[in-house]
Amino acid sequence: MGQQLRSATMAMQVEVSAAGPVVYFLCSGLYDPAMVIDTMMAEHARRRLPNALWDLRRVALHSFVYDDFEIVASAGARIAPLRGPGAKTAMLVGSEIDRLLLTAFVGVSALINPTTLRPFLHRREALAWLTTVQAEARDAP
C-alpha cells in the first residue's frame, strides 16, 4: 500500500516518441494539466503529426478535475491547426473509472477542440483507431 501511495504522489513525467503518423506520450505520476499542456504544445509544434496516443495507465488521474477540462481542451484547440484535419488523440487508461472520467473530458473538449478524442482500455484498439483514416480527413481539400 505504501508503494502505491508513493507512486501516486510523484510529479508527472512524460516520455515522448514518434512512429509513423503517431506521437506517443508515455506518462507516469500524478496528473498535472500544466505538464500535459506544455508537453502537448511543444511536441505537436515540433513534430506536426496528426495523431497522438497518451498512455495514462501509470498516472493517478484523480487530480484531473472538471475545472481543468476546458483549460486542457482549449490548449488542444490551439494546436489543432498544426496537426491538420482529421487529427485524433487516443487516451489509454487502466481502469473503467478512468475511462469514464476521460469520456466526460471528451464531451467538454468536443465543444471547443476540433481534434477527435477517445479513451481506450486496450493499446491494440487505440492504435487501430488512430491508424484508421477517417472519411472526412480523406475528403478534406
Overall strand count = 5
| Neighbour order of strands in the largest sheet | 1-2-3-4-5
Helix content: 40-55%
Average predicted confidence as pLDDT: 89
- Sheet having the most strands: 5 strands, mixed
Q: What structural class results from the helix and strand content?
A: alpha/beta
Strand content: 25-35%
Order of helices and strands: HEEHEHEHEHH
Oligomer: single chain
Give the N-to-C terminal Cα separation.
Answer: 54 Å
Indicate the low-confidence ranges by residue numbers: 1-8, 135-141
* CA-atom Rg in angstroms: 15 Å
- Taken from the alpha-carbon principal axes, the silhouette is globular
Helix tally?
Answer: 6
Layout of strands and helices, then pairs:
Elements: H1 2-8, E1 13-19, E2 22-30, H2 33-47, E3 51-60, H3 66-83, E4 88-92, H4 96-109, E5 116-120, H5 123-130, H6 135-139
Parallel strand pairs: 2-3, 3-4, 4-5
Antiparallel strand pairs: 1-2
Helix pairs in contact: 2-3
Question: Would you mind describing this structure in some detail?
Answer:
Helix 4 links the parallel strand 4 and strand 5 (116-120). This protein is an alpha/beta fold and 141 residues long. The protein starts with a helix and ends with a helix. The relative contact order is 0.16. The chain has 6 helices and 5 strands.
Notable characteristics:
141 residues, 5 strands, 48% helix, disordered N terminus
Write a brief caption for the model.
By secondary structure, the chain is an alpha/beta fold. The chain is 48% helix and 26% strand.
